[in-house]
C-alpha cells in the first residue's frame, strides 16, 4: 500500500497530505529526499531510496514547475507498487486544476484523491491481464476524446493514463494531434511526456508517409468524430508548414506557398467523404496526391539536419507557434526569414506559454556538449541536463528571454548549488576544535598513483605551519620505494617532524603509532601519506580501508588530478565503494573532501572539479596549482561556474 | 548632338525612374523600421517614467535566515496568515511575499505592507541570500533553541558569514537573533544562546581571517581586535528575541519588523 502522498510548494509549505493514509512515517524521508536528492541536482532520477531505523521507503516525485508544486509519494520498498507513477501523474493533473496560490487548505481534494487512487489501483490490476490491453486502450482513447470535447481547452492539458504509460505509439500521436487542435500544444507542457512529444514531431516531420495517415484516419474512424478529424487534418497541414519554411530557408517561398495551398485544398477535399467509406481506399488516395509533395520535404529534412546546430533557436520557436499566426505569415507573402524574425519578436514580447521538452532539448544539447568539452564526465553532464530539464519543464518563459538563456541561467544556478559546499571547509577551525579536546587532528591523503599526494601533503603542511599549527607527517607509504625518503626531504625543508618506520610494514599500524607519537609530543595535526593505489586493486584497497577504520581520521582527503575526465568519477566512486565494502565496522568512513591537483595545467577545462563533487557530494577543500609550497588555493566556486559555461 | 542629348535625357529619365522605384522600396523599409524605432523609444520612455514615479524610496524587505529546520518557513506563514497550516518541509526556493502582518490585519488604518523573504537554510541554497541582501532593511536570524548545541557551530558559521557580508556591514542592517521553539521546556535561554554564538564567532574570527588570503573577497573583520567578540561590537545593531513560531508567539519579531518598516 501507499504509505503517504504529500503535496507541497517549492517554498516548503505542505498543502495536502492524505488523511486516510495517516501512517506515521518513520524518520523524515521527505526532508531527506529534498536535501540529498532534489537539491543535489539528482531530480532527473526516477526514485529515491530512504533508509532509517526500522523503515525502508521508496519515494517518487513529480514537479509542477509552472505552479511551483512538488508531489511526493512514499511507499514501502518491499512493495513494488506499479501504479505510483500513474497515480502521481493523475494527482498532478487534478490538483493543478484546484490549486490557487492564495489557498493553503485543500480538504476538498480528499474525495478526488480517493477516486484517483481507486481508479489507478483498478487499472494496475487490470493491466496484469495481457489480453485486456487492447480493449483498454480503445476505451481510453474514447475517453480522451470525450474529455476534450466536453471541457475544451482546459482539459486538453490532461493526459489519459494510456499516454503516460506510453503503451502504444499511434494512439499517442493521434491524441496529441487532437490536443493540439484545441489547446495549441498546451498539453505537452503540462507533463514531461517525452514520448508523446517526440511522436507528434515525428508525425509532422515525416508527415507524408501513408502509414501514419492510414492509422490516423483509422483511429478517427473508430472514434467516429468528424469535426475533430477535419481539424486534425488542418493541424497536420500547419505542422508541416511550420517545419518547412524554417528548416529550409533558401527555397523560393512563392512556389512553396502556392504548392502548399494546393495540397491543403486537395486534402480537405480528400477528407470530405463520409467516414463510412472503406478504410483502405483513403490512404492510397492520399499517398497518390501527396506524391509530388513528398520529394521536397525529404530534401528539406536533410538540409535542416545539416544546419541544425546553427538554427536551433529559430527551429523550435516556430515549430510551436500557433496555427493562426502561421496562416497569417503565409498569407502575407513574406519572406520566410522575415516571418521567423517577426514571430520570434512576437514570442519574445509575449513570453511563451510553457516550456516543453522539445523546446529545451536543443539548448540542453548545446549545453551538454559544452560541459563535456570542459572535461565534465559524460554521464554527469547528462544527469545534470536531465535535472535542469526537470526543473524547467512547464515553466513559463518570461518576456524578452530566449530559451537558451533561460536554460543557461538554470544550469548556472544548478552548478553553483552543486559546487557550494554543504559543510564547512574551514579546516583550521576543526584543528582548533580538536586541539581543545586534547587530540591531534588527523588527515589521511588517499588517491591513485602519481596524482601528487606527497607533494600536496607538503603544501598543506606548509599552509598549516604558516598559521601556527604544529604539524607532523606520517610516512605510511610503505609500498613504493623512495616514498619515505621523498617525504623526509619535504619534512626537512619545512622543519617538520616526521614519523617513519621504513618499508614493508603495515601502514595501518604505522599510522596508529604516528598518532600515538603525536599525542605524546602534543602535535596539533598529523598528515598521513598513503601509497597510491588503483581503485581496482583489491589488496591495497583493503589495506587502506583498514588504515582508515582503525585510526578514525578526522578528514579523509581524496587527492585527484584535475586532468582526468570520466575516470575521475570512476576513481572516486570505487574508492568510496571499497571503503564501504571492505570495512569491518558498521558505519564505514567515507571520503570527506577532495584535493584537486595540477589545476594550473588545465586552463579552463575545469570539469573534473564538477564531476568529482557531483559524484561524491563532498566539497573541494584545496586546489593545488603549482610546484612550490605556496601553490595551494581554495576553490573559487564562482569562477569555476563561469569557466564551465563560457 | 541632338540625338546625343536626347539619348542622355532618356538615360537620365530611366535612371531617375529606377531611382524612384528603388527609393519607393527603400521608403517602405524605412517606414517599417522607423515605426519600430519610434515604438521602442516610446516604450523606453514610459518605462523610465514609471520607474521614476513609482520608485520605492525606503526598502521594506525583511529577510528570514537561519539553518534548515530552525523554523523560518513556519515563521513566515505565521507572520502572513497567523497560522502554521499543516506544517512544512525543507524549502527548495525562497518564500517571498509582500503583505500586512497578520496581527495588524484587523486594524482599520492603512498600514504599509512588509516584504518578507524566507531564504532556505540548506547550505547549497545560501548563495541566494546575496540576491536579496542589497534591498534589505532588516535580518531575522532564526535559531533553534531546542536543538541548539548540535548545530551551534554551523549556526555560528552562518551567522558569521551573514555579519561579514559587505552589504550588511556597510548598510548597517540590524539583525535580530530570534530563538525559536522557546515554548519547549528544554529550550536554551536566549542569553545562553547569545553567549555561545559570541564564543564561537570569536574562534571563527581567527581561523577565517587565515583562509581569506586565498579568496579575493574582501571580508570585513568583526568586532575589536584583541578583545573577545561581543555582538555589541558590531557596527550594526544585533538584538535577541524569544519566539515560538509553531504556537504563534511572534510578537517580538513583529515588533522588530515594525521598527525597521514603519507602518
From TrEMBL, chain A:
It holds the Pfam family SRP-alpha_N. Residues 137-152, 323-335 have a biased composition (Basic and acidic residues). Residues 120-336 are annotated as: Disordered. Residues 619-632 form the SRP54-type proteins GTP-binding domain. Residues 230-241 have a biased composition (Basic residues). It comes from the Eukaryota. Keywords: Endoplasmic reticulum, GTP-binding, Membrane, Nucleotide-binding, Receptor. It is a peripheral membrane protein. The keyword GTP-binding applies. Residues 122-136 have a biased composition (Polar residues). It is found in: Endoplasmic reticulum membrane. Residues 153-162, 183-194 have a biased composition (Low complexity). Its main location: endoplasmic reticulum. Residues 308-322 have a biased composition (Acidic residues). Belongs to the GTP-binding SRP family. This is SRP54-type proteins GTP-binding domain-containing protein. It comes from Sphagnum troendelagicum.
Automatic annotation (TrEMBL), chain B:
Pfam families: SRPRB. The keyword GTP-binding applies. SMART domains: ARF (SM00177), SAR (SM00178). Keywords: Endoplasmic reticulum, ER-Golgi transport, GTP-binding, Lipoprotein, Membrane, Myristate, Nucleotide-binding, Receptor, Transmembrane, Transmembrane helix, Transport. It is found in: Endoplasmic reticulum membrane. The chain crosses the membrane at residues 30-50. It is a single-pass membrane protein. This is Signal recognition particle receptor subunit beta. NCBIfam families: small_GTP. Belongs to the SRP receptor beta subunit family. Belongs to the small GTPase superfamily. Arf family.
Amino acid at each position: 500500500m501507499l504509505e503517504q502522498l504529500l503535496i507541497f510548494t517549492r517554498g516548503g509549505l505542505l498543502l495536502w497530505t492524505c488523511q486516510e493514509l495517516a501512517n506515521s512515517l518513520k524518520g523524515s524521508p521527505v526532508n531527506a529526499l529534498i536535501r540529498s536528492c532534489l537539491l543535489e541536482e539528482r531530480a532527473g532520477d526516477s526514485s529515491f531510496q530512504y533508509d532509517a531505523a526500522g523503515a525502508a521507503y521508496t519515494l517518487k516525485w513529480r514537479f509542477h514547475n509552472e505552479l511551483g508544486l512538488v508531489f511526493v509519494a512514499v511507499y514501502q520498498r518491499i512493495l513494488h507498487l506499479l501504479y505510483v507513477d500513474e497515480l502521481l501523474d493523475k494527482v498532478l493533473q487534478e490538483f493543478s486544476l484546484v490549486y490557487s496560490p492564495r489557498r493553503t487548505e485543500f480538504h476538498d481534494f480528499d474525495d478526488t484523491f480517493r477516486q484517483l487512487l481507486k481508479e489507478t489501483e483498478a487499472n494496475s490490476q487490470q493491466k496484469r491481464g495481457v489480453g485486456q490491453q487492447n480493449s483498454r486502450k480503445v476505451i481510453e482513447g474514447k475517453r480522451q476524446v470525450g474529455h476534450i470535447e466536453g471541457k475544451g481547452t482546459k482539459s486538453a492539458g490532461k493526459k489519459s493514463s494510456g499516454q503516460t504509460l506510453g503503451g502504444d505509439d499511434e494512439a499517442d500521436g493521434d491524441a496529441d494531434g487532437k490536443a493540439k487542435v484545441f489547446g495549441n500544444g498546451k498539453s505537452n507542457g503540462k507533463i514531461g511526456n517525452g514520448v508523446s512529444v517526440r511522436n507528434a514531431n515525428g508525425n509532422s516531420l515525416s508527415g507524408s508517409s501513408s502509414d501514419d495517415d492510414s492509422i490516423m484516419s483509422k483511429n478517427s474512424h473508430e472514434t467516429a468524430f468528424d469535426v475533430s478529424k477535419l481539424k486534425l487534418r488542418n493541424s497536420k497541414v500547419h505542422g508541416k508548414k511550420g517545419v518547412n519554411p524554417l528548416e529550409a530557408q533558401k527555397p523560393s517561398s512563392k512556389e512553396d506557398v502556392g504548392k502548399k495551398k494546393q495540397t491543403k485544398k486537395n486534402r480537405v477535399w480528400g477528407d470530405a467523404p463520409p467516414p463510412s467509406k472503406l478504410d483502405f481506399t483513403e490512404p492510397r488516395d492520399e499517398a497518390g496526391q501527396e506524391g509530388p509533395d513528398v520529394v521536397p520535404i525529404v530534401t528539406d529534412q536533410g538540409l535542416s539536419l545539416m544546419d541544425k546546430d546553427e538554427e536551433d533557436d529559430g527551429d523550435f520557436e516556430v515549430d510551436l507557434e500557433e496555427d493562426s499566426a502561421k496562416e497569417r505569415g503565409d498569407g502575407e507573402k513574406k519572406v520566410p526569414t522575415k516571418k521567423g524574425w517577426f514571430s520570434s519578436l512576437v514570442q519574445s514580447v509575449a513570453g511563451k506559454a510553457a516550456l516543453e521538452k522539445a523546446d529545451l532539448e536543443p539548448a540542453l544539447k548545446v549545453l551538454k556538449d559544452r560541459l563535456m568539452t570542459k572535461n565534465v564526465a559524460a554521464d554527469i553532464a547528462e544527469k545534470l541536463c536531465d535535472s535542469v530539464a526537470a526543473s524547467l519543464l512547464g515553466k513559463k518563459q518570461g518576456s524578452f528571454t530566449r530559451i537558451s538563456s533561460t536554460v543557461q541561467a538554470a544550469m548556472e544556478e544548478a552548478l553553483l548549488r552543486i559546487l557550494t559546499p554543504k559543510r564547512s571547509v574551514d579546516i583550521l577551525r576543526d584543528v582548533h576544535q580538536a586541539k581543545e579536546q586534547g587530540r591531534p587532528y588527523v588527515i589521511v591523503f588517499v588517491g591513485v598513483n602519481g596524482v601528487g599526494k606527497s607533494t600536496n601533503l607538503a603544501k598543506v603542511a606548509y599552509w598549516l605551519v604558516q598559521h601556527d599549527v604544529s604539524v607532523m607527517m606520517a610516512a605510511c607509504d610503505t609500498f613504493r620505494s623512495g616514498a619515505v625518503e621523498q617525504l623526509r626531504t619535504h619534512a626537512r625543508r619545512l622543519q617538520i617532524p616526521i614519523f617513519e618506520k621504513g618499508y614493508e610494514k603495515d601502514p595501518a599500524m604505522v599510522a596508529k603509532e604516528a598518532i600515538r607519537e603525536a599525542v605524546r609530543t602534543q602535535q596539533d595535526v598529523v598528515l598521513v601519506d598513503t601509497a597510491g593505489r588503483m581503485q581496482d586493486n583489491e589488496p591495497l584497497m583493503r589495506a587502506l580501508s583498514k588504515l582508515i577504520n582503525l585510526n578514525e581520521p578526522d578528514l579523509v582527503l581524496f587527492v585527484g588530478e584535475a586532468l582526468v575526465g570520466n575516470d575521475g568519477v570512476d576513481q572516486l566512486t570505487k574508492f568510496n565503494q571499497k571503503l564501504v565494502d571492505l570495512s569491518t565496522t558498521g558505519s564505514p568512513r567515507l571520503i570527506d573532501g577532495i584535493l584537486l591537483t595540477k589545476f594550473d595545467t588545465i586552463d579552463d577545462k575545469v570539469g573534473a572539479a564538477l564531476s568529482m563533487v557531483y559524484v561524491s557530494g563532498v566539497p573541494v577543500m584545496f586546489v593545488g596549482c603549482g610546484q612550490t609550497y605556496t601553490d595551494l588555493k581554495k576553490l573559487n566556486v564562482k569562477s569555476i561556474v563561469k569557466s564551465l559555461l563560457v | 548632338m541632338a540625338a546625343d542629348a536626347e539619348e542622355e535625357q532618356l538615360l537620365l529619365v530611366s535612371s531617375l525612374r529606377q531611382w524612384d522605384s528603388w527609393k519607393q522600396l527603400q521608403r517602405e523599409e524605412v517606414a517599417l523600421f522607423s515605426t519600430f524605432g519610434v515604438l521602442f523609444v516610446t516604450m523606453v520612455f514610459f518605462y523610465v517614467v514609471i520607474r521614476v514615479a513609482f520608485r520605492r524610496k525606503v526598502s521594506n524587505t525583511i529577510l528570514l535566515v537561519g539553518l534548515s529546520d530552525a523554523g523560518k518557513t513556519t515563521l513566515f506563514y505565521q507572520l502572513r496568515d497567523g497560522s502554521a497550516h499543516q506544517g512544512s518541509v525543507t524549502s527548495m526556493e525562497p518564500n517571498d511575499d509582500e503583505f500586512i502582518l497578520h496581527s495588524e490585519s484587523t486594524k482599520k488604518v492603512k498600514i504599509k505592507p512588509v516584504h518578507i523573504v524566507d531564504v532556505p537554510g540548506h547550505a547549497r541554497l545560501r548563495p541566494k541570500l546575496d540576491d536579496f541582501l542589497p534591498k534589505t532593511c532588516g535580518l531575522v536570524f532564526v535559531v533553534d533553541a531546542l536543538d541548539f548545541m548540535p548545530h551551534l557551530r554551523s549556526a555560528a558559521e552562518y551567522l558569521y558569514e551573514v555579519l561579514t557580508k559587505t552589504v550588511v556591514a556597510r548598510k548597517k542592517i540590524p539583525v535580530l537573533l530570534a530563538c525559536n521553539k522557546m515554548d519547549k521546556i528544554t529550550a536554551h535561554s536566549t542569553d545562553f544562546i547569545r553567549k555561545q554564538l559570541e564564543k564561537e564567532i570569536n574562534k571563527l574570527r581567527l581561523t577565517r581571517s587565515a583562509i581569506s588570503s586565498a579568496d579575493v573577497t574582501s571580508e570585513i573583520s568583526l568586532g575589536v581586535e584583541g578583545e573577545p567578540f561581543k555582538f555589541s561590537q558590531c557596527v550594526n545593531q544585533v538584538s535577541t528575541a524569544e519566539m515560538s513560531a509553531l504556537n504563534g508567539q511572534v510578537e517580538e519579531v513583529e515588533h522588530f519588523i515594525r521598527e525597521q518598516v514603519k507602518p
